[in-house]
């Protein structure tokens, strides 16, 4: 089932286009990573999917209901801001208070069941002010889970967690997906999502710039470094202009998204012989950074 579908989803704030024509499909039962640097439009997209703000144009469906149909929204759990709890009440009491707002829980034992699911049963009666950051995040998750959502939207949920907290949270998300829930998780850190997500979408300046399985992101973008005689640099650059080409600090040509054989053939056909050809695969982190650099940043980094 397609849990999320967006077609040309757009949000403008005056002259700022926060989300620009987003087309996206998320299938059920997976952890989906929504990646992008700060300001790339992730939160705005999630707020539109939650019906909190109206799109300027485009359409979106959640749980196969066209927004803003509230029946689509009723099966979404979300953590879009840092969850706010009453510090002097216990974790359990906080959830009970939240359960009183909105429609009744689908399961009368929803509160203890959700606390159990996130591993907080042992500290359920402790005041929230004594909780660690990781416990608070898990309590936020329990608040969403007690309504048994089909889709969980989490905006940068591991912000402020230590490495152990991040690991625990990751394991929890994987086990929720194992139970058939869809988790849509935003982050500005590729290293974080690559360990937990099945698929990722990469946003940059409000636009979707990449979408696919995590392992394919970097693999689709090998890079070739070529050395030619100095007198042939310009000719080589012109021959290779079908790819993005730049020179590195050591006067080698850097050809993005090509393989060595193609580069070699193209040069040879134009009568330029490479002195050296090396194929590289940038790490995922680097691939992500390159995808999300603005044009000015890209120009600045290739000039250096
Ligand atoms: N209410 C608003 N009014 C005006 N501009 C806004 C508003 N909300 C977001 N923006 C702008 O829209 C763009 C996208 O912001 P958004 O918060 O969606 O990005 P993000 O990827 O979630 O980043 P972050 O991780 O920093 O939250 C930014 O340029 C932001 O300044």
From TrEMBL:
SMART domains: AAA. GO terms for molecular function: ATP binding; ATP hydrolysis activity. Pfam families: ABC_tran. Keywords: ATP-binding, Nucleotide-binding, Transport. Residues 4-230 form the ABC transporter domain. The keyword Translocase does not apply. InterPro entries: AAA+_ATPase, ABC_transporter-like_ATP-bd, ABC_transporter-like_CS, P-loop_NTPase. PANTHER family: ABC TRANSPORTER, ATP-BINDING PROTEIN. Belongs to the ABC transporter superfamily. This is ABC transporter ATP-binding protein. It comes from Actinoallomurus iriomotensis.
């Amino acid at each position: 089932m397609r849990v999320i579908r967006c077609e040309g989803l757009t949000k403008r704030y005056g002259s700022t286009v926060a989300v620009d024509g987003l087309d996206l499909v998320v299938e059920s039962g997976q952890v989906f990573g929504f990646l992008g640097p700060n300001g790339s439009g992730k939160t705005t997209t999630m707020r539109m999917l939650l019906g909190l703000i109206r799109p300027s144009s485009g359409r979106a469906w959640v749980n196969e209901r066209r927004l803003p149909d509230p029946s689509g929204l009723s099966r979404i759990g979300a953590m879009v801001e840092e969850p706010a709890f009453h510090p002097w009440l216990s974790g359990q009491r906080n959830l009970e208070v939240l359960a009183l707002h909105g429609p009744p829980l689908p399961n009368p034992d929803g509160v203890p069941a959700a606390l159990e699911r996130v591993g907080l049963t042992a500290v359920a009666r402790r005041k929230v002010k004594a909780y660690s950051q990781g416990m608070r995040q898990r309590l936020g998750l329990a608040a969403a889970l007690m309504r048994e959502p089909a889709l969980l939207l989490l905006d940068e949920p591991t912000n402020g967690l230590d490495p152990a907290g991040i690991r625990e949270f990751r394991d929890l998300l994987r086990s929720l997906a194992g139970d058939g829930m869809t988790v849509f998780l935003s982050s500005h850190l590729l290293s974080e999502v690559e360990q937990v997500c099945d698929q990722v979408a990469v946003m940059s300046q409000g636009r979707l710039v990449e979408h696919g399985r995590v392992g394919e992101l970097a693999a689709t973008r090998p890079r070739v470094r070529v050395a030619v005689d100095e007198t042939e640099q310009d000719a080589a650059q012109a021959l290779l202009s079908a790819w993005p080409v730049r020179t590195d600090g050591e006067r080698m040509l850097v050809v993005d998204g090509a393989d060595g054989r193609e580069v070699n053939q193209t040069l040879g056909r134009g009568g330029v012989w490479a002195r050296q050809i090396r194929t590289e695969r940038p790490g995922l982190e680097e691939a992500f950074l390159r995808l999300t650099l603005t044009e000015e940043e890209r120009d600045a980094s290739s000039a250096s």
